[in-house]
Please model this.
Amino acid sequence: MEERHRDEDKDEEQLGKEKLPPKVKLASGVAQDKVLPLCERHETPGWGPWSVKDGVIYAHAPATALAQVLALRVHLDDSIADNGPLRVLPGTHKMGVLSDDAIHRLAEEVTSVDCLVPRGGVLAMRPLIVHASSKSRSELPRWVLHLEYVASRFIENGLELAVA
Model:
């Protein structure tokens, strides 16, 4: 699974905390990456709801499948405090798939950490870490190449990941 994209800025209402110093408690705009692209839809316990986007089938995946994924973010530009770095809630990837209410509760209780990465640097993360891309306060670009790795395309119960 490979994708080159520019992190999208959240508007002020979505993030609400972009004017605070780098380490802040996030109140909104936080999430876990809970869906995986699949070759075919097979009704499997723990998977779903299902959706299709641009012809690709996606399903909300269980924690056992998501824990097998490692995302690498190759920074094509500097990620600094002013151009909206990725913010994470440390250790939350070990908590499994969380409800939206649990995510928002954690965002109120846990201090986020800005992931400041120089151009050419690589950030490794698990999809279940609670995170948000903060709003940029500068005109500086923030491009990343986002790669996701798994040991096998066959992720669980015969489900095969769709890869680009």
Summary: Helices lie at 12-15, 63-66, 100-109.
